[in-house]
Amino acid sequence: MLSKLKEKIKHNLPVMVIPSIIVLFIVVYLFNRIFIVIHGGEAGVMYYLFFGGTVVDKVYGEGFYLNWPWDTMHRYNVRVQQIPHEFDVLSKNGLKIHLYISIRYYPEYKLLGVLHQKVGPKYADVVVVPEIEQVLRLIIGQMDAEEVYTTGRSIIEKSLNDATEQIAQRFIIVDNVIIKKLSLPEQVEKAIQDKIEEKHIADSHIYKIEKQKKEAERKRIEANMMKEYNETVNSSITDKILKWEGLHVTLELAKSPNSKVVIVGNGKEGFPVIGNFVLNEPDEKTKPLDEKPKIALEEPKENVEKKVEPKKSPGKTKSKK
Predict the structure, then answer these.
(1) What single-letter DSSP state applies at residue 60?
(2) Which of 27, 92, 185, 186 is the most exposed place for a label (fewest CB within 10 A)?
(3) C-alpha to C-alpha distance for 36 and 72, rounded to whole angstroms
(4) Among 179, 95, 76, which Cα is nearest to 132's?
């Protein structure tokens, strides 16, 4: 029995080898269409050639799948993706502005089959970039170059948020649109910078003037308050209060342990004058510091000792006998 089987195989070997080689070749050639691997961050959309075309109600997640070679599995990147893009737009006054933007987007997972059927794998170039570019052209076309350079960026980004709603209707979520750089012609940019600098200098002068006005107002209010205070104090001071304060000072002075001279009779309603008074002429110890000492001028002793005798006339000289 076994020998008959071996003989049959040897007899039919050429017939079996050729089809096996053909099948193996087909499997190797169509390996990627038969054995499908969906990696992390990807999703698949199935297209059946004989059973209804694109499957829009089912999305194939990550994993391994077997597929008929005549059917196709389309893989999509469902992670957040980024597209750098740059282009020129015209402002309201006809100046050319160069924009550098970055668009972050990702496809809506549950509607991936509809996206494949309606738009296709190149949905970023077909929908995302053209929609964002159109919105930017429309917004900047209604603004002056100076407005775009100063405050336009915030307005543009706010308007781009409205544009993302239109793109969402195409089964795509735009996460953010970032304006990296906004370039104007060099001469226009310099003129705008000079104008902004002059404006800040003018604002600085206005601020200084307002500050001086407020300082003057503060001093005026302070002076009025001091005036009111002095008027209130002057109206409250009477002769009796002054007499009471004088009596209080006199009593405090009388308590001092130093020697005092009391002078009685300082007016009808006055108080005794208590203190140290100098009644005699000041001696040397009590002389003022600025008084110069008197120095007696005396003649030099040489002049006193030497006396000049009067000269005798030669006619009156008597000879001795």
Answers:
(1) B
(2) 186
(3) 9
(4) 179
Out of 24-28, 85-89, 283-287, give the one with best mean pLDDT.
85-89
Beta carbons of 44 and 17 less than 8 angstroms apart:
no
Dihedral-angle region of residue 146 (phi above 0 means left; psi in -120 to 50 means alpha; beta otherwise): alpha
* pLDDT, tens digit (0-9, with 9 covering 90-100), for 210-224: 889 999 999 999 998
With b meaning 16 or more CB within 10 Å and e meaning fewer, what string describes 58-75?
A: ebbeeeeeebeeeebbbe
Task: Answer whether residue 145 shows pLDDT above 60.
Answer: yes
pLDDT tens, residue by residue, 93-113:
788 888 888 889 999 999 999
The DSSP secondary-structure symbol of 30 reads: T
DSSP-derived letter for residue 128 is I
d(CA 321, CA 307): 31
For residues 168 and 85, the model is more confident at: 85
Query: Residue 245 has which token pair?
Result: 């304060």
> Any idea where the domains of the chain sit in the sequence?
7-74, 81-189
Q: For residue 212, count CB atoms less than 10 angstroms from its CB and return exposed for 0-12, middle for 13-18, buried for 19 or more.
A: exposed
Tell me which of 55-69, 227-241, 246-260 is least confident: 246-260
Under CATH, which architecture does the 81-189 domain have? 2-Layer Sandwich (3.30)
Whether the CB-CB separation of 38 and 65 falls below 8 Å is answered with: yes
Q: Which long-range contacts (CB under 8 A, 24 or more apart) does 121-125 make?
A: 121/74, 121/76, 123/170, 123/172, 124/81, 124/83
* Least confident among 70-79, 176-185, 278-287: 278-287
User: Any residues with CB less than 8 A from the CB of 263 and at least 6 apart, and which?
Assistant: 272, 273, 277
Query: In this structure, are residues 35 and 27 in contact, taking their beta carbons and an 8 Å threshold?
Result: no
